[in-house]
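I'll show a typical protein example:
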Amino acid sequence: MTTYAVKAAAINPSLVKKSINLREKTPEIRYVSHSSQAVRLTPRGRFITRLAVITSLSILLLSGFAAMTGATAGSAETAIPTPYIKVSVKPGETLWSIADSIDSNGDRRSLVADIVEINNLKSPELQAGQKIYIPTRP
């Protein structure tokens, strides 16, 4: 198959003249790439951008720290046992009787002193139903 170049003037000379006139009157169209232009931020925009970056990095850092230390919320497995037990005082009980029931062979004076110190007791008298903390001994 053969391709022939045909001049536009040979087809319709009036079209050729109009196209020349149109080219002279139309301005040249330039396509501008936006990627070559820098984005300009206002001071408020720069502040918001910096704040977003700092916040996201802080969250990332804290979550990494929590993952490395093994922090868990409300897990019973990782709960550290307290060295105290909470006891409700029965009618007629004294500090000495409670100390005797916990450690009958050891020195009760140090245990009574510990109970008074832990519970911030102002007097050695106890009321029935009062809740006190008693140290557990190994």
Remarks:
- The two ends are 105 Å apart (CA to CA).
- Residues 43-69 form the longest helix (27 residues).
